[in-house]
Amino acid sequence: MKTTSRYRAAARIIAAMGVVSLVAACANNGTSAAGGGGDAAYPTENITFVVPFSAGGPTDTVTRMIAEPMAAKLGGRIVVQNVEGAGGTVGAGEVARAEPDGYTVLMHHIGMSTAPALYQNLDYKPLEDFEMVGLVTEVPMTVVARKDFQPATLQDLVAHVKANADKVTLANAGIGAASHLCGLLFQSAAGVKLQEVPYEGTGPALTDLVGGQVDFMCDQTTNTSGQISAGEVKAYAVTTPERVKSLPDVPTTTEGGLPQLQVSVWHGLYVPKGTPQDVVTKLSEALKVALADQQVIDQMAKLGTAPVAADDATPQAHRAKLEEQLGTWAKILADAGVKAS
Amino acid sequence: MELLDNLALGFSTALLIQNVIYCFVGVLLGTAVGVLPGIGPTATVAMLLPITFYFEPVTALIMLAGIYYGAQYGGSTTAILINLPGESSAAVTALDGHEMARQGRAGSALAAAAIGSFIAGTIATVVLAVAAPPLARVALQFGPAEYFSLVLLGLIVSIALARGTALKALAMIALGVLLGTIGQDIYTGTPRFVFEQRELYGGVDFVSVAVGMFGVAEILRNLENEHSREALVSKVRNLWPTREDRRRMVGPIARGTGVGSLLGILPGGGHVLASFTSYAVEKRISKRPQEFGHGAIEGVAGPESANNAAAQTSFVPLLTLGLPAHPVMALMVGAFIVHGITPGPNVITDEPELFWGLIASMWIGNVLLVLLNLPLIGLWVRMLRIPYQVLFPMIILFASIGTFSLSFNAYDVYAIVFFGLLGYVLIKCGCEPAPLLLGFVLGPLLEEHLRRALIISRGDVTVFVTRPISAVLLALTVAALVVAVLPAIRKRREVVFTEDD
């Protein structure tokens, strides 16, 4: 009999393991069953927010921040799912092909406007395969260097890299990453071609910058402000029209004499083309409510960013932004000869 | 004594009742996801991150850290019992640990892993407390050239120790390196070996390879001789390490802790090398190298200690510089930010309760892990009694669910099937999967750092010898090669990764 009870105990462990892993898988997955589109009752089931980047990254953090107040407004549940790969194109492609019923929503950033230029065999068209819901936030970027890097100001930096173009190294977090795009824009604005050093993500790139292995880079305030305020890296400028609240001493690129260097990591929500208009409107209204939520404003401030104005959290403003950005990046990337595949 | 004051502050924070409770929740969850093949700490931390927004910052970080090192701890359990490593470090544990289980010594192996991990964790906590800031400065001296030389040394040490089937081991490493190149090249964005499948752009997941090559291949091999498994399990012997075992564990635990503590600090992949290096070291200095791969307890105690020590010291760059060394730590950076703490060098001075509380909690977490795991050993060993017609399908089911939950990529599950079949064929050909895994893990690191070093130096290869740390590492590499090649010594060379036939 003892053997039987042992066997049962072991079977119980196995069963427990099964339950845990199933719950884990389901909790992360949520439902994606097709519902009847266009109904006034939307939402009647869980809404999945697809983040095409890894969990815990800036885009994921922003998504999780707005998911809860949006769910409260919509009167449903929102499940965040990370579908990573190929610079966000795997997750975006998945949403483009999803049922257009409003239960699959994509959060994407500036990469939406660069993908067509970077990826030749892209299996979706940003303007034609999606309905825009609204813009969410625009994260400012900073031009930073190792702390013992010679130039003192942004203008010095431009002069220095022009004079030493064969020596200076410019780090980035990989092809198509925000830091890569900002670096390209810097080179185009300064009129110089530099040696770029790609890394797999911001963490390693910043580590080598703090360690003095590379000279400078351009990255989101989210990643750099801690190192800037600790004096581990030297900050030359923020790439927005106005100074950033969390970094009051850092001048803008306009003040620093390089007004062409304007870039921010803008985020927006998308649903598949053909999603009923009233569903898009409901999502857009919920987005506006979430962006006005004091907790969301506070949390974004900690990230060194802020929600977009209510006028920008609309399908029209979002579409206009995407069209403008697609044009901008197509030119810059073509000029730089950059391709991801 | 400033250190004692700091530790007192740390323990007074970590011993608050809510912190102890969430530390326990963290290590419990960590053990659970470590035991479950596939589901790793990264996915778990990502899922729990939003919940921690409502905690005190220090409580949140204590729990998230507990999940991370708890998972390193739990990962050895499935590696030992069913040859299913969930992380690169556990793959090394599987070599001798599973062999011990086959010999009916699963209890000893599990106990060796638990005790080794606890001692390593305790010492690594002291290292963190005493020397975190200066160590982080040393780690920053490691640039691409140094990492290249370090990884090369790790790879050569392992090859140099291969015996008899050296050609096959070399072929397996090469195959592993090739498999590691699948995906988008980070320097040019060129997709390699992806066959136009966008899902392969991110490369093949380590978990899929490990689960397939070790777990599924092992199951297929077991299916060949159905009767031997029952015979094997019926003779489960002592649950505790014998006196002889205990004596043999001491040295490996001490050396593993040292190796792990040092390598763990390096954010550019150093911690990946910890358990591989510890295994190679133990094998080299052992008086009984022939036992390695056939159930040597040193091969469990050493790597498990190294792995746990590295898991803890890998918090050094995060806590002292705000630089994450692992995806889990990147998530923890997110936790810092959400709580309004900017991760960076200022955390130690601005948030001393948080810094010292987290360090103290790691030791408490290690105590909790031992209290949690030692009583469970008897229960885990009983799992081996489950009839294989029940156990095997469940292993494959959980492995598939877990792997799929990593990034919702069906290709990760197809990869399990592919590598399971490949692993079986390779075993039949007398090739060992362990060197393949080594190549798979280290190959991409080697390439990444080599190319980056050359990009920064504008193609000047002398950087590897003009930078002092790199030069020393390369000299050690040459020494390892010489030792391997000298014919007189060759006779004594042994296999670092022996698998039985």
UniProtKB/TrEMBL annotation, chain A:
InterPro entries: BUG, Bug_dom1. It comes from the Bacteria. The keyword Isomerase does not apply. Keywords: Receptor, Signal. Residues 1-24 form the signal peptide. Gene3D superfamilies: Bordetella uptake gene, domain 1, Periplasmic binding protein-like II. The keyword Kinase does not apply. It holds the Pfam family TctC. Belongs to the UPF0065 (bug) family. This is Tripartite-type tricarboxylate transporter, receptor component TctC. The lineage of its organism: Bacteria, Bacillati, Actinomycetota, Actinomycetes, Streptosporangiales.
Automatic annotation (TrEMBL), chain B:
Residues 21-438 form the DUF112 domain. Signal peptide: none annotated. The chain crosses the membrane at residues 51-71, 109-132, 144-162, 169-188, 200-220, 318-342, 354-381, 388-408, 414-443, 464-489. InterPro entries: DUF112_TM. Keywords: Membrane, Transmembrane, Transmembrane helix. Pfam families: TctA. This is TctA family transporter. It comes from Nonomuraea maritima.
